[in-house]
Automatic annotation (TrEMBL):
Family: Belongs to the Nudix hydrolase family.
Record carries keyword Metal-binding: yes
A UniProt-annotated Pfam family: NUDIX
Subunit structure: Monomer.
UniProt entry tagged with the keyword Magnesium: yes
BP-aspect Gene Ontology terms: DNA protection
UniProt cross-references to Gene3D superfamilies, sorted A to Z: Nucleoside Triphosphate Pyrophosphohydrolase
Organism: Pelagibaculum spongiae
Molecular functions per Gene Ontology: 8-oxo-7,8-dihydroguanosine triphosphate pyrophosphatase activity; dATP diphosphatase activity; metal ion binding
Cofactors (names): Mg(2+)
Taxonomic placement: Bacteria, Pseudomonadati, Pseudomonadota, Gammaproteobacteria, Oceanospirillales
Protein name per the record: Oxidized purine nucleoside triphosphate hydrolase
């Protein structure tokens, strides 16, 4: 699957073979009783948006450790088992490049609590607030909810999605 727009500037999708991210980050998509636990992001990249809890990898930790640490830091909860749902590579026209590992979970311990970084918000799976989310979410969240593993390349100009390619979508996880 791919969008059809022409790509301005020096980047194109799929990214070149030698593309490498400056930074790696995690997202945790937690679902309980047909509702998804999201955050209203209070600072940093994507401030004001609704998205999954997550953040950038710290030295020495695996991506799954990063996901669990960010869940604790942002919402004060401890994750149960997570499965890797997909990997998205983001290139921003201003130069920032980010590889995001997306984890799916269905159990956690603790009460989601507001922190300096995020406020917890629950949405029914059929009423996710895509108009308040990063534009890529509307494309890969349905794949994740169908247990389909995905890998995508996404080109952004600030908060606008310019072009994308889903490089890999598995029929079953
Ligand atoms: C560009 O499209 C994006 N889509 C989605 N769904 N999520 C994105 C996109 N770009 C970034 N993200 C996510 C990935 C990370 O979870 C956060 C960014 O992490 P942040 O800048 O908040 O990193 P922290 O380590 O938490 O930073 P601070 O603790 O310094 O706030 O956004």
């Amino acid at each position: 699957m791919s969008s059809t727009s022409n790509t301005p500037g020096k980047f194109s999708v799929p990214f070149e073979d030698n593309w490498a991210p400056e930074q790696r980050a995690s997202l945790v998509m937690m679902v309980r009783n047909d509702n998804m636990l999201l955050i209203h992001k209070k600072r940093g990249l994507g401030i004001g948006k609704i998205l999954g809890p997550g953040g950038r990898q710290e030295p020495g930790e695996s991506m799954e450790q990063c996901a669990k640490r960010e869940l604790k830091e942002e919402l004060c909860i401890d994750s149960g088992p997570l499965r890797l749902a997909g990997v998205n590579r983001f290139q921003f026209a201003d130069g920032l490049s980010l590889e995001v590992h997306i984890y799916f979970g269905e159990s956690f311990e603790g009460m989601p609590t507001e922190t300096a970084e995020a406020s917890p918000v629950w949405y029914p799976l059929g009423q996710l607030p895509y108009d308040k989310m990063w534009p890529d979410d509307e494309i890969w969240i349905p794949l994740m909810l169908q247990n389909r593993y995905f890998e995508g390349d996404w080109l952004f100009d600030h908060e606008s999605l310019i072009d994308f390619t889903l490089r890999r979508v598995d029929e079953t996880a």
